[in-house]
Structure formats: structure tokens, C-alpha cells
């Protein structure tokens, strides 16, 4: 019995554990998320035609949903001074620097879409008539880089901590930059609307602060597929910035060569 | 239901046939708990189904074992009525056959079937066991075949699925082990007890689908492969030489899909599935002689979480058991901050030293130091203790616990708790049957909720009666307004307990009014959160 049992046990063990090789489990192809599109509207409190552009963007927002992210930069030359009765001054030095970095605007309403130059235009600021088509074109592209954000907001100190994860889908060469902006929505204040000075105009997506350099922080790490680059930012919200209406907008874009194109953008509310 | 009928029919058949021919042996046990819940918003005893609506919860286990003709049979009825044992903040109601088994030894073979408890080595790769206070019942529902090769060597192999309350997990577990005993010279106290084992777990399709669906939401940066089979293997030995005993075990586990709650997803959020191999090593050296007892233990663990299902966290679905590196404190306040074994990575040492100076006086110290693999300190406990016995009249035990506890890792709060806890127990015997026992403890800390005191008086009237009264008191903060409300919410609250216990032979009934603060309940390094309790607790245990 004993002599028989040892080989039997060996065979039993072999049957129990068998060959360790197995057919690998198929995991679906993964992606770094959906493509979003950044629209940077150049505007000003005294810009009479700009509200028409804002209204168009609100309609486009309804059409394209959360994939369309809008920032209103109050730096339209000659239109960005507040009225004496205005409660707020939306102009910021960094906002003006960002607007200049994007390009020169010669008509209003105007907005850049992913900072892309669309011939025959020679600057990224585009006329309202072609916004929808360009947005649709951009949304149809697959993102080459993923962006993900985590944030914590302490209501007692009003400190906002943000972590941005940059996830390249493929190897990316050339200079890339990360820009992080803070916007505030639904601010009621004066605005020139055509010929009228409207006191209770609702300003949308107003740029309040840029947490990186106005031209974006250069990403020094190599953007290779499967790498994760994490950047941290902090800001203390001013008392009159209503946190429930504030959002963080982060985007990766080319530096200047070959262009300034935005590759991916995300937006998160400061509070849910 | 079919299982229930089958079990009863089988048991009835065996019992009746046994009575007709040859009387066998019947043993059994009953354990019942009944909790009456009384809402007390001040201490947080509210917000669970038991406090809000149900008012009563109970658990009961009735086990019967029968032996005859070399067979052992067992049947256990489990019942949970509005019980908070499975989920401390939820309610669980179910009843049925919690366990049945058949066992027979024949021609050197040891055959078992049903719900089986067993382990390999110290349990590092496989341990099927029951710990009712934590609602752990990891019985293997399957078969086991053992074979005694000779007087010193035996092997076993088993296969089955792990029990999950009144069901089973889908994954299949199979394993084998060989255990030996070598004593070159039977006249000398030198021996070896080597062993080796292997366990394989095969995910079922449903579990694999859930894994794939989860990974499919990840970015490529977090992508991890997965496989059906994971193998864990272990080698161990106990060496005894004179007064020394040395246990050593090392284990390796092939790639396994684990849930790592400390890793962040690239897309944001804490916790993700990883696919990695792991290993662990554990050793324990003991010396006992001349009034001196010393035990030194060490453990190193990396990614050795081994579950039937990677989505099971906490105490459920564990295939293995990693020995804890800290002693299990029995006194209330020294036990308040107990470390949970970190399956994903920890390294630790524990020294326990006892010395009997003479018949009356003995001293001891327990030191435990546990770190994460990156060097972050998790737990440090230094606890000297002295016991003095005055004839047979009274006995005093006094100790001091110096503690550093990483409450951020263990409980997700703050950072570290640093506490100093002196404690004493005095037992005085009026007569050999009448005694009083007093416990006094003071936990001093600035962290978590702050400092506590605890007092207990217990009167024993052997062999039947035990009456006890205790109070745990939360010392108020000196400058309450300087602290957030969360830290001071229990300030000045009393947690009294009053209980009576009646014992008659192997039967014990206890009834107590209990007010108990929220905390961590641990057994063998396996811990879980226990919410505040306020109510009346009735417990019955009986063996026959």
C-alpha cells in the first residue's frame, strides 16, 4: 500500500496543480478617456457684441455637453475695463498674458477653439460662424493624452489643492505645456449688450486665476506611453469667489512649435 | 433547502441506525447571543437598523457531533436574526445549516467531506477557520484526503470552495501538504518537524468578468493583466533542541489580482486592482526554562493578500492567515488601539519575555515594532508587566503600555496616536470560592478622542456566580474649544456596564447592560470596526 501510494500521490499532485501555463485573459483595449474641446472666449465688460458670442457658446454647450469646456478671458483690447458701477473687475494680468499668447484678435465676438489656426484665419481667434464645425471636428479626434484631476477643498480655510495626472496615450515628442485655470460661473454684474448697459447680466465661465504660468508650465518629463506625470497646485479662493460656482480647467497644449494646439482639456467643479 | 433536508435526513439515519446497533457518542455545543438595542444619540448609538427599527438582534450556533464505527459526523445550525455581526452598520437575517461534515479513517487514509476547517503550516498560505466574534467562517466546502505514510510522515490534499455565510464563493481552491517529524535519537530532546504545502485558487468566470470589467475602466497606465490561477507555496519547519524551539516558514505566491487600497489610479481615486506576485517569511524562536520564557518573532510580508475574490476586503474571503506581530491585549484600554495585519506589506518584530523571580513575583515585557516596507512606522508597543502573588490570598498585576499607533493607516484618521496606559488588576480571595477582582486603567493621549479611564469590579462566587460592574470614562479636554468637534464629541461621557454570569458545569448564561464606545475589534491580527453599542446583551453557551 505504502509503495503504491507515493507514486499515486505524485500523480495526484501533478493533476491538482498541473501545468501552470494558462491562456491569458483578454482585457479590452483601454483608452485615456474621451476627447474634450477647449473654447477660450475673448471678451470684455464693455464689448457690445460679445454677449452674442456667449449666447452661442451656451447653445453649443447644450449641444455638445460636458465635452465642451469654455473659459471667458476678459482681456478684449479696449473693452476690458469695468464700469465705475461694476462690482467686479474681471481683468487679470495673467489673463491678458494668456490672451496675448493665444494670438491677436481683430473682431468680436471671437474665441479660440483648442487654440487651433483654421485657414484662411491667421490667428487662433475664430469667427462665431465656424465655431460649431471646428468643435465637431476636434471632438471627432481621439485624444493623444489623458488628463485626470483630483482636488480637495477645505471650506474653513478656502484652500484648494489640485493634482493633475497627465497620461500620454502614445509617445509624444516636442515641447508640451500644462495650463491650469480657475473659472467662476454665473456672476451677476454690469455688461454692455449691444447698445445697452445691463446691470444684472449673468457672466459665464469667467477666468479668475491661472495657477500655472500664463503661457503654461513646460512639462519637462518625457511624455511616453504608459507613463503618468503628476503635478500639484494649490490656491486659496478669495472671499468673493463663490466656490459652488468655481471650476478648475486644466489642459495640455503645444508650446509654440509647431503650434499652440490644445491636445486635451478637463474641467472639474471645486465643490460637487 | 434541499441541503437542509439532506443534512437532517443523513443525521437522522445515522443516529437511528446507531441506536439500533451500537451506541455512538454524541457531543455538541450551543452558543447564542441576543442584543437589545437602546438608542442613545449622545454616544452615537443610532442610525443603524437595529437602533432605528428592529431593536433586537440575535445570533446562534447549535452544533451536534456524532461518532460511531470510526465515522465522525457533524451538523451545525446557524441563525442570524437582524444581526449586526456580518456588517456592523447593517442587518443580516438568515438561518440554515452552517456546517456539516463526514470524516472516516480507513487503512491509513483520512477522508473528510463537507465544510472543513484546516490549515497548512501556520496558515500563511491556507487556513480555513472560524472566528465568530468577527463573523469569520472560512470553512472549505469540499473534500480532503489525508494519508499516513508512516508514524512520522503524512500527506493531505483537498479541494473545494470557500463558505460564504449560507453559500459558497465561486472560486475553487485546491491544495496539498506534507508534514513530517524527524527525531534522530529518541532519548534526546532534539527533533525536526518539516513540512511543505501548495495551494491553488482558480477564479470562476463571474469573478473574472468582474475583474475585466473593472480593469476596462482604467487608463492604459493602470492596465494590469489577470489570470485564472494563482499558486501559493510554503515550506516550514519546527526545530526543537533542548529548551529551544524554532519555527520558520517562507512562502511565495505567483501573480494574483489584488485590490490595493493604498494605490491611486492614474485617472484619480484611491484603490485599484493590481496584478503582482508576493512573498512572506515568518519565524518564531522560543526559549523556556529555569523560570524564563522568551519568544522572539519576526515577519516580512510583501503583497501576500490571498482572497477567493479580489473585491472582498475586510475579514471576508481570506484564504490565508498571516500571524500577527503584536500581542492580543485583554484589558479594555490597552486593547483600544490594536494593529491590523497588513497583507500588502509590513515588516515587524515582537519580543515577549517572562521571568519568574520566585514563586510570588514574576516580571515580563512585551515589545512589538511594525513598519511598512518603505520604513513608515505602523505600530510600536512596549509593555512591561509585573505580577505579585501573596500566598493564595491576593494577586496583583501591574503593567504599563507605551504605544505608537499609525491610526492613518489602520483607521484612516489623523496620523499617529501616541499613548501611555498604566493598568492594574488586583484579585483578592475572601475564601477559596469568594473573590473580588478590581481593574483600573488610564489611557493618556492627545490624539483621537483624547484620554480615557476604566474601572471594573467583579465579584466571583465560584462555581456559579460572577457579578461585575465597570465604567469607561472619557476625560474632557482642558480647552475644548481649541479642538474640532469630532475630537471632543465623547468628552465627559460615561460608558457603564453591569453584568451577571451564571455558570453550571459547561453551561454559561450572562446578562449585561452595556454601553460601549466605538472602536476596533481584533482577533489574531484580523480587525474590524465595531460601532458604539448601547443596550442589553444576553449570551448563552453550552457544551454537552
Can you summarize this structure?
The complex is a heterodimer of chains A (272) and B (544). In chain A, the strands form four sheets. In chain A, strands 7, 10, 11, 13 and 14 form a five-stranded antiparallel sheet that branches. In chain A, strands 2-1-3-4 form a four-stranded mixed sheet, with helices on both faces. In chain A, strands 5-6-12 form a three-stranded antiparallel sheet, with no helix packed on it. Helices cover 19% and strands 36% of the residues of chain A.
What overall form of chain A do the CA principal axes indicate? globular
**How large is the share of residues in beta strands of chain B?**
over 45%
* Assembly state of the chains shown: heterodimer
Q: What separation lies between the terminal Cα atoms of chain B?
A: 28 Å
Kindly provide the radius of gyration of chain A, computed on alpha-carbon positions and rounded to a whole number of angstroms.
25 Å
Query: The CATH topology of chain A is what?
Result: Immunoglobulin-like
Low-pLDDT runs of 5+ residues of chain A are none
What is the general shape of chain B?
globular
Count the DSSP helices of chain A.
Answer: 4
The CATH architecture of chain A would be Sandwich
CATH class category label of chain A: Mainly Beta
Largest interface: A-B, 32 and 35 residues
Largest sheet of chain A: 5 strands, antiparallel
Low-confidence stretches of chain B: none
Q: Percent of residues of chain A in helical segments? A: 10-25%
User: What's the mean pLDDT score of chain B?
Assistant: 93
Overall structural class of chain A, as computed from helix and strand content, comes to: alpha+beta
Could you give the count of β-strands of chain B?
A: 30
How many helices of chain B? The count is 5
Amino acid at each position: 500500500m505504502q509503495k503504491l501510494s507515493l507514486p499515486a500521490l505524485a500523480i495526484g499532485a501533478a493533476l491538482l496543480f498541473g501545468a501552470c501555463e494558462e491562456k491569458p485573459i483578454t482585457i479590452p483595449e483601454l483608452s485615456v478617456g474621451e476627447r474634450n474641446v477647449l473654447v477660450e472666449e475673448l471678451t470684455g465688460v464693455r464689448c457690445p457684441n460679445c454677449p452674442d458670442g456667449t449666447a452661442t457658446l451656451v447653445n453649443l454647450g447644450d449641444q455638445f455637453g460636458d465635452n465642451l469646456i469654455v473659459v471667458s478671458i476678459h482681456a478684449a483690447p479696449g473693452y476690458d475695463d469695468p464700469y465705475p458701477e461694476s462690482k467686479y473687475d474681471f481683468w487679470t494680468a495673467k489673463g491678458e498674458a494668456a490672451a496675448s499668447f493665444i494670438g491677436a484678435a481683430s473682431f468680436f465676438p471671437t474665441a479660440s477653439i483648442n487654440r487651433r489656426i483654421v485657414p484662411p484665419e491667421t490667428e487662433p481667434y475664430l469667427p462665431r460662424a465656424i465655431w460649431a464645425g471646428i468643435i465637431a471636428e476636434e471632438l471627432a479626434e481621439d485624444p493623444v493624452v489623458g488628463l485626470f484631476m483630483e482636488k480637495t477643498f477645505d471650506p474653513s480655510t478656502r484652500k484648494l489643492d489640485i493634482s493633475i495626472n497627465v497620461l500620454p496615450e502614445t509617445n509624444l515628442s516636442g515641447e508640451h505645456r500644462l495650463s491650469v485655470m480657475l473659472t467662476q460661473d454665473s456672476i451677476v454684474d454690469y455688461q454692455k449688450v449691444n447698445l445697452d448697459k445691463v446691470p444684472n447680466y449673468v457672466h459665464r465661465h469667467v477666468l479668475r486665476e491661472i495657477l500655472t504660468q500664463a503661457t503654461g508650465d513646460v512639462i519637462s518629463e518625457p511624455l511616453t506611453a504608459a507613463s503618468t506625470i503628476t503635478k500639484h497646485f494649490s490656491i486659496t479662493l478669495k472671499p468673493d469667489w463663490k466656490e459652488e460656482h468655481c471650476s478648475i480647467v486644466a489642459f495640455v497644449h503645444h508650446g509654440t512649435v509647431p503650434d499652440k494646439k490644445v491636445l486635451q482639456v478637463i474641467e472639474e467643479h471645486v465643490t460637487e | 433547502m434541499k441541503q437542509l433536508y439532506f443534512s437532517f435526513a443523513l443525521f437522522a439515519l445515522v443516529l437511528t441506525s446507531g441506536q439500533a446497533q451500537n451506541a455512538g457518542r454524541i457531543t455538541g455545543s450551543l452558543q447564542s447571543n441576543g442584543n437589545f438595542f437602546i438608542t442613545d444619540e449622545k454616544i452615537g448609538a443610532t442610525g443603524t437598523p437595529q437602533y432605528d427599527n428592529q431593536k433586537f438582534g440575535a445570533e446562534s450556533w447549535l452544533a451536534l457531533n456524532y461518532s460511531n464505527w470510526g465515522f465522525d459526523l457533524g451538523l451545525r445550525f446557524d441563525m442570524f436574526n437582524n444581526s449586526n455581526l456580518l456588517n456592523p452598520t447593517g442587518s443580516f437575517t438568515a438561518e440554515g445549516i452552517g456546517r456539516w461534515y463526514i470524516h472516516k479513517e480507513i487503512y491509513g487514509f483520512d477522508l473528510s467531506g463537507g465544510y472543513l476547517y484546516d490549515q497548512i503550516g501556520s496558515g500563511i498560505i491556507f487556513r480555513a477557520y472560524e472566528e465568530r466574534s468577527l463573523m469569520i467562517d472560512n470553512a472549505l466546502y469540499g473534500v480532503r484526503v489525508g494519508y499516513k505514510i508512516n508514524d512520522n510522515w503524512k500527506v493531505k490534499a483537498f479541494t473545494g470552495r470557500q463558505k460564504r455565510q449560507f453559500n459558497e464563493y465561486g472560486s475553487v481552491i485546491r491544495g496539498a501538504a506534507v508534514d513530517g517529524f524527524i527525531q534522530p535519537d529518541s532519548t534526546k530532546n532534539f527533533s525536526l518537524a518539516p513540512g511543505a504545502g501548495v495551494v491553488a485558487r482558480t477564479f470562476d468566470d463571474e469573478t473574472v468578468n468582474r475583474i475585466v470589467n473593472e480593469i476596462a475602466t482604467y487608463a492604459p497606465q493602470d492596465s494590469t493583466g489577470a489570470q485564472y490561477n494563482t499558486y501559493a507555496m510554503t515550506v516550514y519547519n519546527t526545530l526543537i533542541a533542548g529548551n529551544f524551539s524554532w519555527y520558520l516558514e517562507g512562502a511565495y505566491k505567483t501573480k494574483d489580482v489584488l485590490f490595493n487600497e493604498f494605490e491611486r489610479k492614474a485617472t484619480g481615486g484611491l484603490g485599484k486592482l493590481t496584478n503582482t506576485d508576493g512573498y512572506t517569511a515568518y519565524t518564531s524562536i522560543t526559549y523556556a526554562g529555569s523560570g524564563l520564557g522568551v519568544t522572539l518573532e519576526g515577519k516580512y510580508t510583501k503583497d501576500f493578500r490571498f482572497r477567493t475574490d479580489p473585491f472582498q476586503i475586510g475579514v471576508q474571503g481570506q484564504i490565508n492567515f498571516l500571524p500577527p506581530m503584536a500581542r492580543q491585549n485583554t484589558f479594555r484600554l490597552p486593547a483600544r488601539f490594536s494593529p491590523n495585519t497588513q497583507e500588502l506589506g509590513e515588516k515587524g518584530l515582537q519580543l515577549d519575555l517572562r521571568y519568574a523571580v520566585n514563586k510570588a513575583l514574576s516580571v515580563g515585557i512585551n515589545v512589538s515594532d511594525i513598519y511598512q516596507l518603505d520604513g513608515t512606522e505602523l505600530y510600536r508597543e512596549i509593555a512591561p508587566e509585573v505580577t505579585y502573588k501573596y500566598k493564595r490570598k491576593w494577586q496583583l498585576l501591574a503593567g504599563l503600555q507605551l504605544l505608537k499607533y499609525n491610526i492613518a493607516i489602520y483607521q484612516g484618521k489623523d496620523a499617529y496616536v501616541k499613548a501611555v496606559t498604566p493598568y492594574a488588576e488586583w484579585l483578592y480571595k475572601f475564601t477559596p470560592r469568594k473573590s473580588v477582582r478590581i481593574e483600573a486603567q488610564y489611557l493618556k493621549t492627545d490624539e483621537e478622542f483624547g484620554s480615557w479611564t476604566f474601572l471594573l469590579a467583579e465579584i466571583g462566587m465560584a462555581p456559579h456566580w460572577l457579578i461585575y460592574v465597570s465604567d469607561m470614562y472619557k476625560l474632557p479636554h482642558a480647552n475644548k474649544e481649541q479642538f474640532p468637534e469630532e475630537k471632543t464629541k465623547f468628552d465627559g461621557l460615561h460608558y457603564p456596564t453591569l453584568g451577571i454570569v451564571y455558570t453550571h458545569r459547561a453551561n454559561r448564561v450572562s446578562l449585561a447592560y452595556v454601553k460601549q464606545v466605538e472602536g476596533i475589534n481584533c482577533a489574531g491580527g484580523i480587525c474590524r470596526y465595531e460601532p458604539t453599542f448601547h443596550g442589553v446583551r444576553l449570551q448563552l453557551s453550552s457544551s454537552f
